[in-house]
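Worked example

This section walks through a single chain of length 316. The input is the sequence exactly as stored; nothing has been trimmed or padded.
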Amino acid sequence: MDRLKIFSGRWGMNLSKEICQKIGVTIGKSSTVKFKNGNSFVKIEENVRDMDCFLIHCIGENVNDDVMEMLIMVDALRRASASRITVVVPYYFYARSDKKDQPRISITARLLADLLESAGIDRVLTMDLHSEQIMGFFKKPVDQVSGLPVLCNYFLQKKLENLVIVSPDAGGAKRARTFSWSLGGELAIIDKKRIGNEDKTISSGIIGDVVGKTAILIDDEIDTGGSIVNSIDLLLEAGAKEVYAACTHAVFSATAVEKLSQSSAVEIVVTNSVPVRKDYDEKRIIVLSVADVLSKSIGSIHNGTSVSSVLENYKY
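Given that input, the structure is written out below as tokens.
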């Protein structure tokens, strides 16, 4: 590990320190300054020549500032003669903008891939992409791991009975089906349609039986919380005994924390792939760590071993 260096953006520091502790290395020294004119400045504070460098970047209060900081850090590492640069983005920025589903719009997820490659990355490590086609936006290697085993192990330990795993829309059916196999539950899908660019959806029904069952809503991310709260209410109205909600990426924008805290769900279970930046009810919103998955994945990339084998140690 003497050739391994791990650096962190400002908002990924807590997760990065946890990962470094598990690997047994100290976090790399860097400094980021934002000038009064809005420009960002990054300096790598130690030698990285011929080093295998990993840059862990999470989203914070301003996604555009975070993207720019990430690009500048990559450029700084490249100009400092790092041997290899792997960007670790647990939650991929602009993941929802992965296709041209309206006239005259940008495919921003692809644009970000182009920017990262232009800055000088050698590979990407990410988690639970909103759409797996994003991996094809890169010419460089992309490793995708999952936070679902962490969520699955949590629910296995609770030993819930008479389960039904629910996808909040048809697009997440594959994710929910895999989760249902692991937990031994049935599968249900909410028929939902999103209205334009607004955080509003229309639910026309539930495909599957939820009456008298313990339902677990599983999704890749929770943003404003409106859609997931509506789904919780719909399941209870349809006869579900109780509802849990789970996701990998707790984006929690706007008033999401307040909405979720006041919802009828027993628990909202998420991971720390995105820092939960607001005060939250720790009895209602459960935050699990993905540091173990990411640290083992980083070790596999550094040592040239299989990343996919990392998840084999989980019951999932």
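What to look for: The CA atoms of residues 190 and 206 lie 5 Å apart.
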